[in-house]
UniProtKB/TrEMBL annotation:
Alphabetical list of InterPro entries matching this protein: S04_transporter_CS, SLC26A/SulP_dom, SLC26A/SulP_fam, STAS_dom, STAS_dom_sf
Listed name of the protein: Sulfate transporter 1.1-like
CDD domains documented for this protein: STAS_SulP_like_sulfate_transporter (cd07042)
Membrane topology: Multi-pass membrane protein
Assigned keywords, A-Z: Membrane, Sulfate transport, Symport, Transmembrane, Transmembrane helix, Transport
Pfam families assigned to the protein according to its UniProt record, in alphabetical order: STAS, Sulfate_transp
Amino acid sequence: MARTNPPDGGGSGSRKTSDDETTHVRQRVLAPPKVGLLKDFKSVVQETFFHDAPLREFKGQTKSKQVLLGIQAVFPIIGWARDYNLRKLRGDVIAGLTIASLCIPQDIGYAKLANLDPKYGLYSSFVPPLVYAGMGSSRDIAIGPVAVVSLLLGTLCQAVIDPNDNPADYLRLAFTATFFAGIFEAGLGFLRLGFLIDFLSHAAVVGFMGGAAITIALQQLKGFLGIKTFTKKTDIVSVMQSVFAAARHGWNWQTIVIGASFLTFLLVAKFIGKRNKKLFWVPAIAPLISVIISTFFVFITRADKQGVQIVRHIDQGINPISAHKIFFSGKYFTEGIRIGAIAGMVALTEAVAIARTFAAMKDYQIDGNKEMIALGTMNVVGSLTSCYIATGSFSRSAVNYMAGVHTAVSNIVMAIVVALTLEFITPLFKYTPNAILAAIIISAVLGLIDIDAAVLIWKIDKLDFMACMGAFFGVVFISVEIGLLISVAISFAKILLQVTRPRTAILGKLPNTNVYRNTLQYPDAAKIPGILIIRVDSAIYFSNSNYVRERASRWLREEQEHAKAEGMPPIKFVIIEMSPVTDIDTSGIHSIEELHKSLEKQHIQLILANPGPVVTEKLFASKFAEEIGEENIFLSVGDAVAACSPKLAEQQA
């Protein structure tokens, strides 16, 4: 690495005039004005929980206006309903009818993933969308059961209660989990703790969703192949063993023909919709067309007599009250809380991500905390009305968006269609083959496998890719909950690694500038002889303070050895560039003190450059600024180098 000669003591230019003298007067680093404890605490709380200033609209308003704004904050429908018109209604009705045609067959299949009767899937697309339409802030999201959450709920509940041996208690546990999922979601929003869902990183979600999609598709082989005896496990090894064990006598060729034919039809419809955006309605209506045609075919041929498994009876009528079925005590009470928290977290992450995606596409804002309250409330109300966990569905939301939706009225239209279906049409689903439901679910979940996103994650961050693959293989080869646990664990491990092992860099001076940059990033950045400039790219806390001190000492040792080998002057000044250091605690101060004392013994001066206000305040409060000398704290690296150069020249002379 090239080294430049140290700049002269006066910096660039001579100091002949009084104006020049004024130009080179050094500006001292000042401690920020002292702030009272109460004011400081208020500032921290405000930035942590109220960074979006949610009460700004209330300032300067009359009492009556503030009351109206308060009601509107809880029920956003009051705000946008005033500007509603026939043009918007037309778009919302078309979108609502389109997503209803998609959700009805999906809901029947998703209920089976949760080990529940098909009617509960339809129930969950009636009440929750109505609640969300009044309280949600997203205009585009479509509410209802989704594949991943259905599988997760079914897997977790099945581990506690066997749905075949004890269906009544299993159903009660599902309602209990839904109730506490809603409490968990609404609680996070009410306490403004929505940032907690960010701990489930994008990479982990991509891996988890991909693994869940594979698992869901494998689970559908039971209905797709007409297998009657099937494993209750979800890992790929157990599922494939179960599939091949039934290959000799357990597969039904009529079922396979029905499933394969309509799966091909659904995939072709999806391909047409992707190729031509104007034909978005083709893949949206294809599942319902498949159900109608296959049901009619089975009815007229009585294929159910030939071993083709069918849905059979679905109760007519809208949601019955289920408040009395929720466990509020007993051995299943705590299990309901645990399952609800896990499933609620995944449902919340998916819904908020979908809402933010479409809000960005249409250039409007959503309030994440209000979304959580809305999602939580709809699940609490849903649990009291025979629904299981509902959330935002990406496939339905995409169809909703492409159908020209304007407001959440599309969810109301969808809910009305589902209610009419429950009241009048459910008997017609009696002969619907399970194979068509399997085909619908397989075609729906294939879109959850995002290979492009995984490749991009690999290119950007290898640790993120590990989290992605950990979640994927954990779900596929072990279980859904283990995959989720692995993804969260790797995400936390990454955070801990970044906190405990922050990046550090040696800085050099770019040619013909007074700018200092990382010598690895800019090979032409020259080091200053006799001066070592180190940048710490993180806050310095108890978790990394010893590492920062040891890494700085190692940099110094390596540079001293290099200088000796090259016949260069030994290091006499160590400058720590602190602009990226956003905060420092007592352990960090103590570590810097130890570094200072260690350098003093080697007759090397420690210099600090550009500490921020928080760090500067703590340096002065701890008296370390006095110990190191205020004259050794500079506004910039350039100032520090300029001040060190004359001293370095004197020592070398």
